[in-house]
Amino acid sequence: MCTHVMQGVMCYTIFIMVITYHGGQCIKVSCGDTSLVFDPISKNATLPAVKFGADIALVSRNHPDMNGINEVSYGGKEPFVIDGPGEYEYKNVLMRGYFSQSMYGVSAQENTREKKTAVNTIYAVELEGMTLVHLGALSSKELPHEMREAVNDIDVLFIPITGNGVLSAEDAYELATSLEPHVIIPLYKSGTGASDALEHFLREEGTSASHMNKVTLKKKEVLEQSSAMMVLQV
Fold it and tell me: For the chain, which residues make up each domain, given as ranges?
């Protein structure tokens, strides 16, 4: 979505970012003619699979709930896939992935006996002048030091809150507020986590949140927000 602005004899385009939530950790972001998806849900997942096309797919954790690349190869689109730490650029979108660990999909027995954890990638994305941070299936509120240093002004934060392998509602709220993003979008619909996580998360906030089917954002509007809580319907 975009708007055209006339200023004197110059005409320039302001792109509007549209964000939708598809359950789990899956977020779709569209801006101009570019669309990207975080953690697309596969057909083998604990949640209903997604089915739409995307230019870019970012996978935080190699798990069926988050690695549905085939499900976003649709409508003539074959996404540029990122599935680990590093720095990437595609279609003028700068993306950085930071290593972290996750307990999502790891049993308590495996963790106790084998000290097993899984790799989780936290993504920071620069799109149309806005910084989006997606925490993936993060289990601990301790963030990588290099990310803390590199990402110090977050416009939109996507944060898991359901527990059972990802952050609990209480830990998620503590981490989210410490990062001081302009907008917080909780990822609350899980096939395995607490069904009342959103209620607990909002209780920590102590205020009501905006509930909507999608979020449309412009940079100027985002800068006017201070840790604004926005709940997206699935």
Answer: 16-232
Tell me the C-alpha to C-alpha distance, in Å, between residue 57 and each of 13, 86, 92, 95, 205: 25, 14, 15, 11, 31
CA distance 192 to 183: 26
Residues 89-141 have pLDDT tens digits of: 999 999 999 999 999 988 665 554 555 689 999 999 999 899 999 999 999 99
Which of 26, 15, 30, 17 lies closest to 155, judged by CA?
17
Instruction: For strands 210-212 and 228-232, give the pairing.
Output: parallel
What pLDDT, in 10s, does the model give residues 21-52?
999 999 999 999 999 999 999 999 999 999 99
d(CA 114, CA 107): 10
Distance CA(83)–CA(231), nearest Å, equals 26
The CATH code that applies to domain 16-232 is 3.60.15.10
Closest C-alpha to 190, from 132, 147, 137, 142 = 137
Give residue for tokens 């979108």. 93
- pTM, two decimals, is 0.91
